[in-house]
Design brief:
Order of helices and strands: HEEHH
Distance between the termini: 99 Å
Oligomer: single chain
Strand order of the largest sheet: 1-2
Length: about 130
């Protein structure tokens, strides 16, 4: 590097001006890099937030589906398994203590199998599409 003493005043002033402009240029470049880094980080955060929301929504849908499936299983478990042949209002799912009407049926010589068959035959069934009015 050359000695600054060898430069005359106008050359030193021109050199100082070049240094100032180079410093300004580098500061602007650094600010632009920092701005781009912030924009990239913001975009990445938005993508991560969107992905997290989608994952949460999917988990919520899966939880609702699992709950619906559990409720369907419970409903199936509580479905009518035994029905009195002459009174459709008398039903029993087979869970819990036997109702009095089941005990009375058994005492008079009836069987649980007969009540099961009655439940199968007398259970309400959906109306076939061909019977529905259009």
């Amino acid at each position: 590097m050359t000695e600054l003493k060898s430069y005359d005043l106008p050359q030193l002033e021109a050199l100082a001006e070049q240094i100032k402009s180079e410093i300004g240029k580098r500061e602007r470049e650094e600010e632009e890099r920092a701005r781009r880094a912030v924009e990239d980080a913001t975009a990445e955060a938005e993508r991560a937030e969107t992905a997290a929301k989608e994952a949460a929504a999917e988990a919520e849908r899966a939880a609702r589906a699992a709950e619906a499936e559990r409720q369907a299983r419970e409903a199936a478990a509580q479905a009518v398994r035994y029905m009195h042949p002459s009174n459709r209002a008398l039903t029993w799912s087979g869970v819990g203590p036997k109702p009095d009407w089941v005990n009375a049926w058994l005492v008079t010589g009836g069987t649980l199998y007969a009540l099961e068959v009655a439940a199968e035959k007398l259970a309400p069934r959906p109306i076939p599409e061909s019977f529905k009015t259009r």
